[in-house]
Recover the amino acids of this structure.
């Protein structure tokens, strides 16, 4: 009984955390209309009562087999649902899904029939990839930050690690708290498997990935951590843009200063 209650509380807290972050995305101006999406892997906090619930949808195809997701449960933003509404009423604007045993379909298990985000291909592919590599990351965020997306309209910034080095050099925090930097995915059709595949390829090296002329994807242990990485990168982008709007090219920290940070904090790159 105690463990059932525990799981209910833990699940409620995780959904509260999603709602809190959804509010930040709206306040930041990163979430126009239904822009962006969130998924969290809630498998560990599903109790027997929820586990035994009947699905309220038929078996919906994912479009591919994701073998590591067998028996997994996710809370997802609903497609066409607004972040600002997810912030206020998460259960009306989000969807609880479980992956069927063939790892090829999902079912909606919740009181209201909310269809999960159209970026499910990317989100589930990211979770499948993370579980496959033994990661403890449970959250995936996709959002549309104005500054970072604007930077992807400049082809020189799309070359490997150019944007990473620029953003790292704007303020020490970005070097320290986004130590893997920022991967780049060339433009691909939203919600496509092409976008999903290119994204998980980048996750090999990065845990934040830009989708050219569209948005950013970030993964983390929880949704707050996934948000914080994007927020930190966006801060760097703001510093860069502010300096440019004052009419000068920001000098940036030197390579030597960044190496010093790497040594001081034992950063991986
Ligand atoms: P959804 O409303 O389906 O989540 O789509 C929003 C989005 O940002 C697509 O890339
Ligand atoms: Zn999007």
């Amino acid at each position: 009984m105690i463990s059932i209650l525990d799981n209910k509380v833990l699940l409620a807290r995780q959904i509260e955390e999603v709602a809190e972050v959804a509010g930040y995305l709206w306040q930041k101006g990163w979430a126009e209309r239904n822009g962006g999406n969130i998924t969290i892997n809630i498998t560990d906090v599903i109790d027997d009562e929820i586990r035994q619930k009947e699905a309220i949808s038929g078996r919906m195809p994912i479009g591919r087999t994701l073998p590591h997701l067998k028996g997994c449960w996710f809370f997802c933003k609903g497609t066409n649902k607004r972040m600002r509404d997810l912030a206020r009423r998460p259960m009306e604007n989000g969807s609880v899904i479980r992956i069927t045993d063939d790892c090829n379909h999902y079912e909606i298990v919740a009181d209201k029939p909310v269809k999960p985000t159209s970026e499910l291909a990317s989100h589930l592919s990211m979770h499948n990839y993370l579980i496959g590599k033994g990661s403890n990351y449970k959250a995936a965020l996709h959002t549309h930050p104005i500054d970072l997306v604007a930077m992807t309209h400049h082809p020189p910034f799309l070359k490997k690690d150019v944007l990473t080095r620029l953003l790292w050099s704007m303020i020490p925090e970005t070097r320290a708290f986004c130590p893997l930097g920022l991967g780049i995915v060339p433009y691909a059709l939203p919600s496509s498997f092409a976008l999903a595949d290119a994204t998980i390829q980048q996750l090999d090296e990065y845990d934040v990935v830009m989708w050219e002329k569209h948005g950013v994807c970030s993964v983390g242990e929880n949704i707050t951590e996934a948000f914080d990485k994007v927020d930190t990168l966006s801060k760097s982008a703001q510093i860069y843009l502010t300096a440019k709007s004052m009419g000068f090219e920001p000098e940036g920290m030197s390579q030597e200063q960044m190496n010093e940070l790497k040594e001081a904090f034992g950063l991986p790159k």
Remarks:
- Residues 35-36, 142, 144, 190, 214-215 surround zinc ion (ligand 2) (CB under 6 Å).
